[in-house]
Amino acid sequence: MDFIFSGLMQAFVLLFTGDPETWNAIGTTVCVSTLSISVSLLLGAPLGFALGYYDFRGRKTVRTIVDTFLSFPTVVIGLLVYAMLSRQGPLGDAGLLFTIPGIAMGQAILGLPIVIAMMATAVENLDRRLKNTLLTLGADSRQVLLTTLWEARFSLMLAAASAYGRIVSEIGISMMVGGNIKWHTRTITTSIALETGKGEFAMGIALGLVLMMVAFAMNFGMSGVRRREGR
């Protein structure tokens, strides 16, 4: 147990003295996660709205596919994105492999089905009389869309928090697509795996504490959103 206590003490030193390597991994993670969740929300919110709002042929099949992707292994997503971004892949000329945007692309794919599924469920659970009421009041299609999204805003916030929690804690995509390059694409999770394997428990624990604080913040925020949604 001594090495755990010692690791905790050293972890606090690394965090609060501004250790460059530790904070670089944190900064990279924040950058990648922000890009990823932004893309997931921009694409997932309207797609989830369409899936939950409109009745079209093959809707149940599409919903099944989206639900299946909720549990898609991150390492498989990493493999597919790596194949697309490699020199032999269709996006090889873009030079995105082993870059922050490349990692963000893979993580956006990870978060996208979460946003779509939760947004679709939220829209499905809205009062069905909302659309008819808005149309009766003379609302056009754009106003119907915006009002429906506003009514589902708390569910969209929950979807964003859930997707962000999954994105920030994944390792497979970051390792395969980013390459875990020091000072460049090394994230919190890949750094924990590397440093722990090297026996550097202090940095591993320090970054683990950061992840735990992020998880706590996400859960605290989601609890607050649920309380407001229930009012």
Number of helices: 11
Fraction of helical residues: over 70%
Question: Structural class from helices and strands?
Answer: mainly alpha
| Beta-strand percentage range | under 5%
CATH class: Mainly Alpha
H and E order? HHHHHHHHHHH
What's the story with the biggest beta sheet? Answer: none
Alpha-carbon distance between the two ends: 46 Å
* Uncertain ranges: none
Please identify the oligomeric state. Answer: single chain
Taken from the alpha-carbon principal axes, the silhouette is globular
Q: Could you characterize what this model shows?
A:
This protein has 231 residues and is an all-alpha fold. It has one domain (21-230): MetI-like (MetI-like fold, Orthogonal Bundle), CATH 1.10.3720. It has helices at 2-16, 20-53, 59-69, 74-85, 100-124, 129-136, 141-151, 153-168, 172-178, 188-197, 201-230. It is globular and about 70 Å long. It starts with a helix and ends with a helix. 35% of the residues are buried.
How would you summarize the topology of this molecule?
Elements: H1 2-16, H2 20-53, H3 59-69, H4 74-85, H5 100-124, H6 129-136, H7 141-151, H8 153-168, H9 172-178, H10 188-197, H11 201-230
